[in-house]
Specification:
single chain, 153 residues, mainly beta, six-stranded antiparallel β-sheet, three-stranded antiparallel β-sheet, 12 strands, 8% helix
Length: 153
């Protein structure tokens, strides 16, 4: 996991060959792009999402992509945990590149996300995005960039 501000993304361009392109797209287009899927290139893409935060539901993992999650507006918690220590709730769905895991939120690390925050999540890191931070419902606008990698299991 990498937790930082999008403004500092340049520190991480050597981590993956597509990170420079993805970070450039996030800085140039992310805050103003319409909701939906946007192709970045070489298999990388970004989804602009708008939703109300919710109570913790479950963790998820992916095999084919690194997630780069950036909050544009609002606040949320994203819980991070180890899938190796969790029980599978729903087996891996290759079509959707997602598996769901059962675990209590207090078993993970709560990462408080606010506008401008960036969280890079690797495939072995289970995560529960969109969770309520504090009390009440709040609207969040977020970018989830997907960066392809070789399949990891």
């Amino acid at each position: 996991m990498i937790f930082d501000r999008l403004a500092n993304a340049g520190l991480y361009t050597d981590v993956h060959p597509l990170f420079p392109r993805v970070f450039a797209w996030l800085r140039e287009h992310g805050a103003t792009a319409e909701p939906g899927r946007h192709e970045i290139g070489d298999g990388a893409y970004a989804s602009i999402e708008e939703y109300a935060v919710h109570p913790f539901r479950h963790y998820e993992t992916h095999c084919r992509y690194i997630d780069i999650q950036v909050v544009v507006s609002g606040e949320e918690f994203i819980y991070i945990g180890s899938a190796a220590e969790m029980k599978a709730e729903h087996a891996y769905d290759a079509t959707r590149d997602i598996a769901f895991w059962t675990q209590e939120p207090n078993e993970g690390i709560p990462v408080g996300m606010k506008a401008g925050d960036m969280l890079v999540i690797w495939p072995h890191e289970a995560h529960a995005p969109g969770c309520v931070k504090g009390s009440g419902s709040q609207a969040v606008r977020k970018i989830v960039a997907k960066v392809p990698i070789e399949e990891v299991r």
